[in-house]
From TrEMBL:
It is an enzyme of class 2 (transferase). Pfam families: HATPase_c. Residues 1-19 have a biased composition (Polar residues). GO terms for molecular function: protein serine/threonine kinase activity. Keywords: Kinase, Serine/threonine-protein kinase, Transferase. Residues 53-153 form the Histidine kinase/HSP90-like ATPase domain. This is Serine/threonine-protein kinase RsbT. Its EC number is 2.7.11.1. Residues 1-25 are annotated as: Disordered. SUPFAM superfamilies: ATPase domain of HSP90 chaperone/DNA topoisomerase II/histidine kinase. InterPro entries: Anti-sigma-factor_SerPK, HATPase_C_sf, HATPase_dom.
Amino acid sequence: MTQLADPTTSAAATRTRGQNPAPERQTLRTEEDLLTVRHAVRAATLKAGFGIIDQTRVVTAASELARNAYVHGGGGTLAIEYLSRAGRTGLRLTISDDGPGIPDIDAALTDGFTTGAGLGHGLGGARRLMHDFEVHTEAGRGTTVIVTRWTGQ
């Protein structure tokens, strides 16, 4: 299993039971689902109190990651979680697919690298747009990308 993560941030963010709702889930099976994901994430950024620039960052990252799961992983799921830490709110997006996995994470995070017809900015771009970024992948078992962005940071 290949994993790229910052272990100092994964445990630092917690979903407070009773205050934050259970994760919202979206299915990624069709082109229309990609639009539904964008709208759901945009609504979540508003609910979490993000400003317009951070809303755009989170929606763009979600759109890129959802498209990757759809195109390269054959579809998947998105979970949206509301987080609290030190009086700030955040959003954690978890995008998972059951595709072939990413054979070379370092290459996939390099701008311009693509296995399809895209520009090759999706995975690396999403990493730059979010505060926390993790990739868990295994050949033949799919990929999960977990990204988090905080308000006021």
